[in-house]
Predict the structure.
Amino acid sequence: MSKTKLEYIWLDGYTPTQSLRSKTLIANDFGGTVEDCPQWAFDGSSTEQAEGNDSDCLLKPVAIFPDPGRKNAFLVMAEVLNHDGTPHASNGRALIDDDDDDFWFAFEQEYTIWDPETNLPIGFPPTGFPAPQGPYYCSVGAGKAVGRPIVEEHLDQCLDAGINLEGINAEVMIGQWEFQVFAKSAKRAGDETWVARYLLERIAEDHDLAINWHCKPVHGDWNGSGMHANFSNSVMRTCGSEETFNSICEAFSERISEHIEAYGADNDQRLTGLHETQAIDKFSFAIADRGASIRIPVGTVHDGWCGRLEDRRPASNADPYRVAGIIVTTTKSAC
Ligand code: MG
């Protein structure tokens, strides 16, 4: 009888920012598909998802990936259900209204590699500050690009797991990096982004380092971290109409607070109008403008108004399921 490790991954119930949880199930003669993964359960009273006297929450497997960091193993992304089978309040994935996979998403996930000893980004001296921003973005060389062994190992593991990473780069603050995930499905983009986050945290453990997902990990003149959301549906990809794109952006302008609610905690510290952001209480859209809330990529215009939009407001600590969910709903209201 063969034994396979299935690492069930889910999101806990902490607010305002959920964290990843996981535990291992040993399966006998495992078939290798998500349908072969049994529904499982966990103690929701230990994750802010249930009371102790009624503590069982269910794990519904929704996506499976080979686990490149372990022998005979898979990573199983799971939705959290109440024990009556309804989606738990912490389950943002269940809210995505895209069952026909009409939406494509690409998330640009920024993060900071963090030293728990100093409680600072790696590359920061124990006291004082490193040289000001400028040399670190897309850099090479000791003292500028720090953390590369983690970033490279993460890239390899994601590709080995079948996660559709489109690229990586060093970011503007020292110790800050980015990876990009693209999927032709809103739910799948969320699944892959969360599993990529999981792998990154686990790899950093091996280096006695942490990943800080906060959107403004260092106050002052240091870039915050975002999760720009690029999106399209079949109308946007084929319409050839500037008016359609304008009406989508106008629909977004009417729902600013609903979007900001889904775009991550403490985002007011990041969306200040500085550091390539629009202020959190303002909304603007423009071609090629990185200071706008929504950027219309120049490629979309060059392709005759067929293509994607980029919402630049989501923060690095946002739940990609909730970000995708509200974007799908608002876009569908316009086209
Ligand atoms: Mg970036």
